[in-house]
Amino acid sequence: MSTYPEVPGEPTQTGSAFIETATATIQNFAPIKKIHQHLCAFHFYAYDMTRQVEAHHYCAHQNEEMRQCLIYDSPNADARLIGLEYVVSENLFLTLPDEEKPLWHSHEYEVKSGLLFMPGVSGPIERQDMEKVVKTYGKVFHFWQVDKGDNLPLGLPQVMMAFTRDGQLYEELVKGIESRYGISVSKERENRAYMSGPTHGIHPLANGGGKGLKTELREIDCKPTDSVPRVFV
């Protein structure tokens, strides 16, 4: 069970459960069925590194150079959907406008440190994919600030970042995953020492360009529909 506050609301009723069973039998969940892997990592709010969150990614390939991941606060059945991440190759990242690049973080440290892992997957198989992930960049937004104890998704979506060097992630979080998943982060770091990051090195504009980033709401005039030219009458 999650350690975060319980989500408010009445328990799912029998009638609702029956409808869910019926629709699950009839409908096609093709996008969800493409999910092929579970990755566990840690994110921090791009404006506050003291707020660190364990993030469970359930990912699907769009193609060889892009993945998209749903992010939950745990791997349990009652997990909260707290965010999403897009993962792109170095080649695709380099095509992004410069003003876009700071929203993306590198994965080199996450992978080589052993902090990014696939629960339950053997090391040799895991490392085959990590050899690819280590060269990629990710863009993450979290919608539910579970670390604050919010029992519903409140506030604005926030840009999240990944850790880039030793000493940033709280040691108790590392010990927590080692205990729960029976892994050794330090041993896996040794096993991944041969891996190399992006071919051109980590781009200086990635990872916020070395600065904090925060999503804020600004009130503006809303463009009315009659201001849009009508092509067809």
Descriptive overview:
There is one protein chain. It is built from 7 helices and 7 strands. A hairpin with an 8-residue loop joins strand 3 (66-72) and strand 4. The chain has 233 residues and is α+β, with helices and mostly antiparallel strands. It has helices spanning 14-26, 30-33, 90-94, 108-113, 123-133, 171-181, 185-191; strands spanning 37-45, 48-63, 66-72, 81-88, 104-106, 137-142, 158-161. A 6-stranded antiparallel barrel has the order 1-2-3-4-6-7.
The arrangement of helices and strands along the chain is HHEEEEHEHHEEHH
Mean pLDDT figure: 92
* N- and C-termini, Cα separation: 56 Å
Poorly predicted runs are none
**Annotation field: number of helices:** 7
Sheet with the most strands?
A: 6 strands, antiparallel, barrel
- Radius of gyration computed on alpha carbons: 20 Å
Strand content: 15-25%
Helix content bin: 10-25%
Total number of strands: 7
Class of secondary structure makeup: alpha+beta
Key structural traits:
6-stranded antiparallel beta barrel, alpha+beta, 233 residues
TL;DR?
This protein is α+β, with helices and mostly antiparallel strands and 233 residues long. The chain has 7 helices and 7 strands.
List the SSEs and their pairings.
Elements lengths: L13 H13 L3 H4 L3 E9 L2 E16 L2 E7 L8 E8 L1 H5 L9 E3 L1 H6 L9 H11 L3 E6 L15 E4 L9 H11 L3 H7 L42
Antiparallel strand pairs: 1-2, 1-7, 2-3, 3-4, 4-6, 5-6, 6-7
